[in-house]
């Protein structure tokens, strides 16, 4: 009996604070869904190196402090990109990233749009419940939720 393949990705929950307000960076992937930046590791990269590189590639953001703890994780099943009859278990691990310069330059090949959103705006924009849970967990860490 074969086990279901597992796909792993790593990303950042980007946060920017200004004038007492906290903003989360969401990107709209070319597939149409709104979520946080993420991607696959290159050979020899650590989880944090992958997350930092993907943030830089997808948004142009370089000036960010990533925190090793806590790590936020989402797990879901998706269709394999190379075989529509096969499903793949996907695990994405996210690091909280405090952004120091919020200027964004999108990677047009993978990203359609972006938005710096307040917690409430982000909850409304995020496409999938799993990503919304990540937002909630990050907000608890940042003490944003009442």
Automatic annotation (TrEMBL):
Residues 5-140 form the Nudix hydrolase domain. Coiled coil: none annotated. GO terms for molecular function: bis(5'-nucleosyl)-tetraphosphatase (asymmetrical) activity; nucleotide binding. CDD domains: NUDIX_Ap4A_Nudt2. GO terms for biological process: AMP biosynthetic process; ATP biosynthetic process. PROSITE patterns: NUDIX (PS51462), NUDIX_BOX (PS00893). Keywords: Hydrolase, Nucleotide-binding. It holds the Pfam family NUDIX. Belongs to the Nudix hydrolase family. This is Bis(5'-nucleosyl)-tetraphosphatase [asymmetrical]. It comes from Candidatus Thermofonsia Clade 3 bacterium. The lineage of its organism: Bacteria, Bacillati, Chloroflexota, Candidatus Thermofontia, Candidatus Thermofonsia Clade 3.
């Amino acid at each position: 009996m074969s086990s279901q393949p597992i796909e792993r990705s790593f990303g950042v929950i980007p946060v920017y604070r200004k004038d007492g307000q906290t903003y989360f960076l969401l990107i709209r992937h070319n597939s149409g869904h709104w979520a946080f930046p993420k991607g696959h590791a290159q050979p020899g990269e650590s989880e944090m190196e992958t997350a930092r590189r993907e943030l830089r590639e997808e948004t142009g953001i370089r000036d960010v402090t990533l925190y090793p703890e806590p790590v936020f994780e989402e797990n879901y099943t998706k269709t394999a990109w190379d075989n529509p009859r096969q499903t793949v278990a996907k695990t994405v691990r996210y690091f909280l990233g405090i952004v120091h310069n919020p200027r964004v330059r999108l990677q047009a090949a993978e990203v359609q749009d972006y938005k710096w959103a307040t917690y409430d705006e982000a909850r409304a924009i995020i496409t999938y419940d799993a990503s919304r849970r990540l937002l909630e967990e990050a907000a608890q860490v940042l003490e944003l939720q009442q």
